[in-house]
Amino acid sequence: MGKMAFEAAIDGIPVKMDASPEHGGSSFGPRPKPMVLSALAGCTGMDVVSILAKKRITFSDFRILINAEVTETHPKYYHKIHLIFEFTGDNLQGNEEVYEKIKRSIELSSDNYCGVNAMLRKTCDISWEIRVINS
Question: How far is CA 6 from CA 20, 22, 85, 131, in A?
Fold first, then answer.
């Protein structure tokens, strides 16, 4: 697509990516490295929401915030990734039973379901925390 931008298809769906301008890109599309973090959040997030829906845990809002650190020796490699699972809803805060179910759903996704997590944890330290906010 010119310079360092490219377009690919994943299962027939177009995906556009770009290198950063300092590496010849044109800011045409997202960078591949941050897309890995988005994939981690999406994969884990869909797992967690699905598991909690089966347990009839409801909430009004759900976000995953990500803090990622690159190595000092090679800034292209993530070495620490911290996920913050933020749930907003009525009667969530202080409810230990709900908190334990949320915690277990994240553990299940991280350990058993999310392929992106499985791939990244081979080279990264992945940690997480839960924030529960009453609406």
Answer: 12, 16, 32, 37
